[in-house]
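quick one: 2-(butylsulfanyl)adenosine bound model?
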Amino acid sequence: MTKEEATRRHGQLAEQIRKYDYAYYVEARPLISDAEYDALYDELRDLERRDPDLVTPDSPTQRVGGAPLPGFSPVVHRVPMQSLDNTYSLAELFAFVDRVARALPKERPTYIVEPKIDGVSISVVYRKGILVQGATRGDGKTGDDITANLRTIRALPLRLALRHPPEVLEVRGEAYLPVQVFEDLNKEREARGEPLFANPRNATAGSLKQLDPRIVAQRPLSVIFYGAGEMDGITCESQDRWLRLLAEAGLPSPSRHWLCQDKEDLADAIAALDDFRKGLPYATDGAVVKVNEWRFYGLLGSTAKAPRWAIAYKYGAERARTRLLRVAFQVGRTGVVTPVAEMEPVFLAGSTVSRATLHNFDEIKRKGVKIGDWIYIEKAGEVIPAVVEVDRSARTGQEREIEPPEQCPACATPLRWDGIFLRCPNPKCSGQLKALIRHFARRNAMEIEGLGESLVNQLVDAGLLQDVADLYHLTLAELLPLGRMGRKSAEKLLSAIEQSKDRGLARLLFGLGILHVGETAAEALASHFGTLERLWNASPEEVEKIAYVGPIIGKSVTDYFRDAFNRQRVDRLRQAGVKMEAKRPTGRRTLQGKTFVITGTLSKPREEIAERIRRSGGKVTESVSRKTSFLVLGTEPGSKLRQARRLGVPEISEDELERLLDGGTNGDEAS
Ligand code: IVH
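yep, here:
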């Protein structure tokens, strides 16, 4: 191939890949298969390997940057990045409209309503259509240069799709982690005993602050734009035109907006968006109402913090105001101590709540929460309520700082800092023990029915359980004197404990709550080693080379089995008759390499079905992607169905799944 031919082919390939990326990452509408895509990408990369001159900064190969950065350089925002004032009722919103009308007595401004994306504000600069800089908001005047991290985001074009790109185009918007991805990430973290991210925004901020772009590349972040910064060689007269222009340039922008003439239109748009936003892939916490005509912006001006031509409307039903009475500290099974707000009871989204999470001490500091404060709490989705903001105007001066405890609230051992988390280092801590037993008894671990939180507390407080292994030595005589425990329920509990001995190595390993070991790693370890004994004697090198394991889990597992206390626990479990062998895989691994997502209600508990899929070699994940082989459809399917249809993932019924499972199994089903 001549140089000229190679250059032409390179241009063609880059162009095609950009088009497919846009269709896939922005429109969720894949145009070609993964294999076809990979072939194009490989061809492009090979061309560049042979002739490095071909590499351009906007080549699709240039997304995953090189080595970690020593730190972020500052970026000065020539046009400051402002924030928005909030409103919580239509009356407050209408007051904003009245203020605008008063400031523009001779004009008739119109309005636009957009979703308020709950992400991390970013600015991206294109020069002559090529992405040259990406930055965080920082304090609004100076942010961090996160170009390398933003380049990894596939929905973000490295080159604008404009025939005549302007000299400078700075666009502003939000980086976000799709809600589904966030939920999956937290489920994995929970299963591994790692601290949870408070919300998608926190997870996004954490990812963007990574100094190693290769780690960022593994988090499927996305972006959406709505605003403008510096501009040279381009003009625009209104917000609705701007949104259209963004789309034309290949930049993701809100999928819907509403144009409004008056208050009545605004009220309708606010209501319509509240419905619409539930189907969006990103978290939204309100609406942004903007004057549509840009020529009024200069006249309206801004306050120190926010423009006078826009305002946020926060959907209020899920927010409540109450007083923070005190802070309790809860110990998790790996010893992480979580601050929990205890508040004057308040009605919030369908129930009365008196406790809300404060996440961690970093968040307490960031929000400036003090004891005695009037605080706002919110319930995001089904998550437990969280403290979101302090009402500083209600301060009396009597409020007290929240001091991190020095000792474990459960066992009084001095606590240690581990990054932003406080940890209790005592392996015999009763708080950790309670959390561990709850985890051990979980449905996807040893599945001990009837062993709920209050019973666990009772058993530990009564001194009957000093370790999970003690469960298997409980007797009727010990249980009967406990409050609220009849003979029947005591017998039922003992029988559930007895049955749990036979769950197999994978679920036992998961149930032991070894740091970083989630369900997937537990299964990989069980199927590789077959017996606990072999795993117990394995070296870290041997463990870490297993698929789904890696060095962090490898070290954690070998450390676990080196610890005398843990070895004793496992010995006692073995003596009690807990089986420590991997369940024999079912016949041929008929579902090997296939990935399933389950949605809706099936005839059996979802976990049971998932377990059978896994035993046949298949994988079960929470969210639909183009890697999903089948969507198993129950009654009343959720949003996963919509996503599956968008991506063209085949749907199968429970019966069809049964046939797939039966196809190669040899009757080795657990009861
Ligand atoms: S316009 C001059 N539009 O919300 C500031 N902001 O709470 C103009 N945000 O700092 C901002 N969605 O990071 C605007 N559709 C939207 C938005 C939006 C989310 C963020 C933005 C802003 C913050 C204020």
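Residues 664-671 have pLDDT under 50 and may be disordered.
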